[in-house]
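Issue 218. Parser rejects a valid record. Input:
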Amino acid sequence: MPPTDPDYARIQALYAKARTLKAQEAAAAAIKKEASRLPTAAEKRDAICSADFRRQWNWTTLFFAWLFLVNAAGIYFFTKGFLLTRLVLEEHSTCAAPPRGYIRDPAGGCWHPRSFEKAVVVIVDALRYDFAVPVNGTEEQPALACHNALPFLYETAVKEPHNAFLLPFIADPPTTTLQRLKGLTTGTLPTFIDAGSNFAGTAIEEDNLLAQLKVAGKRIAHLGDDTWTALFPGYFEENVSRAYDSFNVWDLHTVDNGVIEHALPLLKSKPKATEGVGKEDWDVLIAHFLGVDHAGHRYGPDHPAMTAKLAQMDVVLRDIVAALDDDTLLVVMGDHGMDAKGDHGGESDDEVQAALWMYSRRGIFGRTAPETLLPPVSAKDPRAVNQIDLVPTLALLLGLPIPFNNLGRPIEEAFAGRKGNDWANLASVAAMTAAGVERYQDAYFKARGIEEGNAGTRALWGGAQEALERSLGGEKGTYKRAYELLTAYQQETLDICRGLWARFDVTSMVQGLAIMAASLVVLLLFARNAGTDSPVMSPELEQAELQLEKNGVDVPANTDADGMDSEPDDFTTSVVKGAFIGILAGASLGVTASSLSPEPSTINDTLLGATACSLLAALIAALGSPLPYRAPFPTTPWSFLALLLPALPAIGFGANSFTIWEDQILLFLLTTLGLIFLFASFSLPSPERTLGITQAVLFTLLTWLASLSKLCREEQMPFCRSTYYASATSSTSAPWQLALPYLTTLLLPSVLKSYLLPSRNYRGPAPLFLNTLRAGLLACAIFWTLDAADDGAWFPFLPTGLLKTARVAIAQVVLGIGFVAGPVAYAYSSPCVSITRAAPQGPSGTAAPAAAGSRMTVTVLGYANAQGSSYLLLLSSLLLPLLLLQKPMGAFALALGAWQILALAELVDVLRLRESPIAPVALALMGSFYYFKTGHQATLASLQWESAFVPLHAVVYPWSPLMVGLNSFGGPILAGLGVPLVVLWKREE
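Output the parser choked on:
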């Protein structure tokens, strides 16, 4: 029996209490120990997942880098076969080694008697032939502003036919100035790849007219277009030459005024023996005017500025003729023409039909038939001459060897004599030129390994040689017959060379296409199979692992000794490893094959072998992956549609009509897609059905509204009407189009806000970004208003250049906001969400008194679209410069494109298409569609070169080409920027 002592009871109670406290402390320690274990396990799992993510990221980056290089190789092989280059021969003609053929006594010259000691060559850039002849307008087709403003050339050719002649001067496309100057000095034809650069020229190393002048000791002076100095560095007399920037198409006067200022003093004798400059300082003067070309680019040919420019040229040419002496030849020509909008690339007749006018005070020119006494009325007249014909003509008139690579023939009027019957001279110059052409053709065919000539050209050459031999024997009429045969021979040879340089290397093209097709297969396999072995992370699995750890069960991490994931290689890793092994093996095979080939090409063979073996190894690795294989074929209606939509235009490129009408085909496809979205939305539950139908209708309407912006290409006439410019003969915007930027300023920020409000994301930085967008759009509108004011001379009392300076300042600020300030602000901005905290509510709705364990209610507004709304702010910033660089009609169309991307994002969300490829396919179609809607076509003439000077006063590398690129590809760039938006829009996870 326990003692009854009170002290004992008290001690017993204290002991029991102590034991209870000790038990509680032990339990707390156990809980603390267990709690300390949990973060360690979580950290371990986080480390494993982080390492796995980094590994997959690195391998995926390598995969796409490899895929980029493979596609670059495919494009290289395709373009090598499609964009053919002409083999440049290093041979140069010399006086001591004339080509075989009949040669008259070259007294006072080289290969042919010299007719002139000096020459003045005036290039009026873009001088189309109809600018130089009278045009009588009718009610149906009235004369344009460019007509009848330059009468001097035609009047002189009519009144003084022995002193001057005027002929159509046909250029070989492409008609960019740089390529035309190459043809005008070398006598050769351009090839496709020659059009690749018009911003910077490469020095001409093949034999050319200026090189022959230098060899002959002639002094060459140059004034005007600086393209000449890029092509012929070191050729010109520095003390009398002046080069001017040639690409500022907004500047109509600087180059021309500079040429005029320096040309006329050079045509006169020096005032004193020790002062000034004069005609004693040069033998050949080249003056290249650019105002007509720039007026065409800026305004189009039917504009008062064009009339003023041609009138200025008329006055200048009269002054030059008045200053000439008897021993100086004057040549006035256009290097190309221009289309109805003032652009030029070579697609239409107007772009290749220039004018050629030659003048001599001595009157040595003639016509071989009375009916050819007057200049041709049209550029389509059979008397039209090729531009390359100027090279042998000038060379022979100046007593120089004809450049080795020349394919032109002498211009008949220059050698026919005053009476037009000097057939001996015509036969002489034709024989000399034809012999040079035959020599060049033999050398070229031998260098290329091509079978020489054909029976037709050999027969013509043999007949001409026979006629020449008979003429030497005194037989009458044989000179004329020899001239006709030699002319026919040169024309036949020229046609052969044109066909040769327009012939595709089909083998190389097939190699390129096969490489790109194989890379597409690998990409499809990657898209279907990559990531299938990613570690499964779910809350249920994590809780199960934690419970096992609580129960003392060791859960081993799947790691190696270094703590890294030791899973077998995944799909991406296998493909990349196989690809790089294939590169090494293929490169070795390529080098070996090249060494055994009779015509080795080590670089091409090595590249082809490495690319082909790399693709083969990647395909084997992909198909042999141990992971569950999923075939890259459509399995749902949406995926089938995603395959069909891009396949249709791709197949259509095989037909010329589909290529010409690509813009309309894209309109049809996007409209069809919008209607499919509409029909699919009817199956949605309400209220999603309403949202889907609204956005589908909006998507379709925006497509049609944007289609109202049109720029027609030559082949679409008369079934297309351009709306991008004020008229079909203008390169400026219509007055009503100036209102479009202001309409965009009002609507676009409000449209973006309307997409942010439903998801409660118009908060945080969103108001600041959209208000900045509105301010930037207003600046863009002011920019184009000032541009129109400058074009139309609305404020003649303002100093010259003030409006241009203001425009450049505005443009630079807008570009700074869009490309610098906006992205920087985005990087440091908070999400477009807001967080509210509220105390617990009592039964009556009032705040309940704080109680033990009660929690504050936290609400995050805008969380459902936090990622998409934030990216939309970045997109709005990058959109601003793209809109600035478009003309008003194009900027409005591009703004509609941004709206359409938002509609697409809503449709992708409401139709549950986030995992479907239909969204990127739709964006790809939109990118191509808006390329056409921003005033572009798949032609060189549609390039808007003036965009290079939106934020600049002159050409500045690399910014000027970059501005042209952003202008040309604003639509595709916007579509590319829209891809993340579609992915992130209303994505909660």
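Fixed in the parser; the record now loads. The chain has a mean pLDDT of 83.
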